[in-house]
Amino acid sequence: MYELLTLPDERLRQKSQSVIQFDESLYKFVDDLEQAMLAGAGGVGIAAPQLGVLQRIVIVDCSLGLHKNKNHGRLIMVNPEIIAQDGEVLGREGCLSVPEWVGTVPRARQISVRYQDVQGKAHELSTKAFEARVIQHEIDHLDGILFIDKVVSTKDLIRRMDT
User: Fold this and answer.
1) What positions carry a catalytic annotation?
2) Homologous superfamily of 10-159 in CATH?
3) pLDDT digits over 26-79, tens only?
């Protein structure tokens, strides 16, 4: 079983490597990753580095949590890459790995993403609004970037009441 990493753990700041082996160990890890996301309070996305695994894997499911925005449903993205983006919008973000804080972060309004599924098959999708924000947030984790690195102003960081 994996433990969810939180700041100040330096592994959250490391860049992840591309997945090259699509096998049973990947399927097992994706199950563990999903369980960790579901165990987190209101989590709608998670990235492998949050469990200390420096692989380019994210799960996004905006039908969960407070937002219940169906969009594309549950997405398991291996080696995701944003290939196009448009517009910019400010929005409030939090993170399972930074549990005490939320802040306003600028993100692209719409994105197109290229990724592989757990069998290695290539996919592309376009998305907007909340789902686009969550995907960008999770891909940032793969590059060692946390939402607190992108807040509009550190004065804008707000301590969560439930922590």
Assistant:
1) 138
2) Peptide deformylase (3.90.45.10)
3) 999 999 999 999 887 777 899 999 999 999 999 999 886 555 556 778 899 999
- DSSP E strand boundaries for the chain: 45-47, 57-61, 74-86, 89-95, 98-107, 110-116, 122-128, 158-159
Task: Report domain extents, the chain.
Answer: 10-159
Looking only at Cα atoms, what is the longest distance across the chain? 45
Listed residue (152, 163, 154) closest to 95, CA to CA? 163
Q: Return the exposure string of 106-145: e unless at least 16 CB atoms fall within 10 Å of the residue's CB, then b.
A: ebbeebbbebbebeeeeeebebebebbbbbbbbbbbbebb
pTM: 0.92
